[in-house]
Design brief:
The protein is about 30% helix and about 20% strand. By secondary structure, it is α+β, with helices and mostly antiparallel strands. The protein has a single domain, classed as Thymidylate Synthase, Chain A. The longest helix has 20 residues. The radius of gyration is 18 Å and the shape is globular. About 35% of the residues are buried.
């Protein structure tokens, strides 16, 4: 905000930008924050987690929590940037989802360098596309018995995109640890590395960021995945299906910290 590397105008929108920015979270679950002006948007994050892990790509569910999605939906009501749909629902010609490929690669070879997941796809390259996926690819690596995750993004909005993206990817990393621990019981959560080729703030956020920076930020953790939301291929578990279908009507605790966090915040 104070000394950007560049000031540019992509799509005629003024931004302050740093190129090829790298963030490393030693504790990925410490991905939320409180701030007097603007804190982590927990209600939206909770809704996004439900939508992503459900593998859906319809705007109908998520636009109730952020109208932004309605403005970028395709004519058929779908959106391209549903990370869950890209990871857990779409299968390649060989029958793998992106998540299934990554987990299977590590189960076959603990030291694999092939546990990659692609987001932005050639099919997204058309001139009328309003939703050109920001995330390029992610890679899981097990090193020194810790599961690390690195995500590379072509573009990342610091105010709206970054806080919600990291919350999802940290939860995804925690889910992957849960799956891999069934074969590697001593595996622990490692670091989360976030690379953004364009790390930027839009002009319409300059004022709010200035006000945010005048107050302290306090770190807050999102709960780990203890009850699997997916199986290792990306299929929804019965527990998650029940959560997704009933989250607005549940009054009692799930006895699972993450499920309870989602239902508490989405309400």
């Amino acid at each position: 905000m104070r000394c950007p590397e560049y000031e540019t105008r992509p799509r005629d929108l003024s931004i302050r930008e740093n190129a090829n920015t790298v963030l490393i979270l030693e504790n990925p679950l410490s991905c939320l924050y409180t701030n007097q002006i603007r804190s982590s948007q927990k209600k939206y994050i909770a809704a996004e987690l439900l939508w992503y892990f459900a593998g859906r790509n319809d705007a109908a569910f998520i636009k109730k929590y952020a109208k932004f999605w309605e403005s970028i939906q395709n004519p058929d009501g779908t959106v391209n940037s549903s990370y869950g749909n890209l990871l857990f629902a779409k299968k390649n010609p060989h029958g793998f989802t992106q998540y299934d490929w990554a987990i299977d690669s590590l189960l076959k070879d603990k030291d694999s360098r092939q546990a990659v997941m692609h987001f932005n796809l050639p099919e997204h390259q058309y001139t009328t596309n309003k939703d050109f996926v920001c995330t390029m690819y992610a890679i899981f690596q097990i090193r020194e018995n810790r599961l690390n995750l690195t995500v590379t993004m072509r573009s990342n909005d610091v105010v709206w995109g970054l806080p919600t993206d990291i919350a999802f990817f940290a939860t995804l990393q925690s889910q992957a640890v849960s799956h891999l621990q069934k074969v590697y019981p001593d595996l622990a959560l490692g670091t989360y590395t976030h690379i953004a080729n364009s790390f930027h703030i839009y002009e319409h956020h300059f004022d709010v960021v200035d006000r945010m920076l005048a107050h302290p930020f306090e770190a807050e953790e999102i709960p780990p995945v203890n009850t699997d939301m997916l199986d290792s291929t990306g299929e929804k578990t019965p527990d998650f299906i029940f959560l997704f279908e009933n989250f607005l009507n549940i009054e009692k605790s799930f006895n699972d910290p993450l499920f309870d966090w989602i239902t508490t915040n989405i309400k």
